[in-house]
Amino acid sequence: MVNPSLTGTLVIEPDPHPGRHPDTDVLAVTNATTTGTTFTAPGVRGCGPGGSANIAVDEAIDASVGLPSASGINSLSLSGNFYFAACYAPQNMARILLAAFKVSVGTPPPSGRREAVHRIAAASLRDGRYGIR
What is the pLDDT of residue 125? Predict the structure, then answer.
């Protein structure tokens, strides 16, 4: 569980499709920074081609990146703009928010086409490039 602190500028914007979702607002925290240092990081489980049977791989990953690690040793820092949705309808809030989200993200890519994935190496985590230490 990570409970980071958040700083930035709070802006409340109406839903981009108010005709479809009149009881929905977008809460934007712009120029935001969130940081946290009071969380534990558990060891890995089930990594490698053998899944949970591959204990040696799990132990090697844990040893190479210092897992598990106690609260106060870890740090997380993210910056950018954060967006949250709020719904003021008297009922079906989850359904309304889901519909608003689906409209906001557009049409998914055709099946079979995969989005690019950036893999992060353990060495990159240790050198602080991704704000994880």
Answer: 44
Same domain, 14 and 33: yes
Residues 56 and 82 occupy one common structural domain: no
Domain encompassing residue 51: 42-69
64 & 78 share domain: no
* Helix H or strand E segment including 94: helix 93-105
- pLDDT tens per residue, range 40-81: 989 988 887 777 777 888 899 899 989 999 988 888 898 988
Q: Which residues pair with 76 in a beta bridge?
A: 36
**Structure-block tokens of residue 123:** 């060495």
Which region, left, alpha or beta, applies to residue 23 given φ > 0 means left and ψ of -120 to 50 means alpha?
alpha
Supply the pLDDT for residue 93: 85
5, 35: one domain: yes
| Distant-in-sequence, close-in-space partners of 14: CB < 8 Å, separation ≥ 6 | 25, 26
Cα 121 off chain centre by: 18
